[in-house]
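Hi R.,

As promised, here are both runs. First protein below:
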Amino acid sequence: MTRVLVVDDDAGIRNIVAELLEDEGYTVDTAGDGAQALQRAP
């Protein structure tokens, strides 16, 4: 299973992209900015 981190400051865009990726079978994490992304990255 492939995990994807979606980072965007626009929550609407972030959620749409995450939903589309999940529909394609990806595991998705989201972050609203770079600091959050760094916390969620392995």
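And here is the second one, sequence first, then its structure tokens:
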Amino acid sequence: MKTSYEDTRKYQMICVVAMANNRVIGDGDGLVWHLPGDLPRVKSITMGCPLIMGRRTWSSIGRALPGRASIVLTRDSNWKENGAIVAHNFSDAITQSKRWLVQQQTKENRLILFGGGEIYSLGINFCQEIELTKVDVSPGKGVKFPNINWNDWDEIKIKDFAPGSDYPGFSYRRYKYKKNTRYV
């Protein structure tokens, strides 16, 4: 018999991403920019949630982030790392994320789409919200966020930040999917 706790919960996927003007999200190895306050913001958004990420994103972070599950998608059937929950397809990543939340005995219902480019492409059509750090640069090359129809999303601009001596200008934005509520 299934528990009502597991049966009644509706889960939503939230995309968390930092992106340049030209949709570049990284160089394939790590962050392209370091912005004051951005990492604490990401931590506050994602705490207590499972993070669905690719193996290269895991490698760029270098460890499991405290207070969150690291659901790592990889094609390598032999890959494993301490603190990573391995998934070999996107459906399994969703299942593993839900299972982790149930095991935590929390009311949290958000699964975080955490990158990189391939993972965003696999999951963006499941997302209800996008938490975006928009970075005012346009790198010549790099991994790009999928090209989506931004007209399907309502934008809430949260805050703008002027450039500093060692970082570009940036802003925090939240997007909510307009058409219907998406559950995973």
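A quick note on the second one: The helical segments are 4-8, 38-46, 55-61, 90-104, 117-123. Let me know what you think.

Best,
J.
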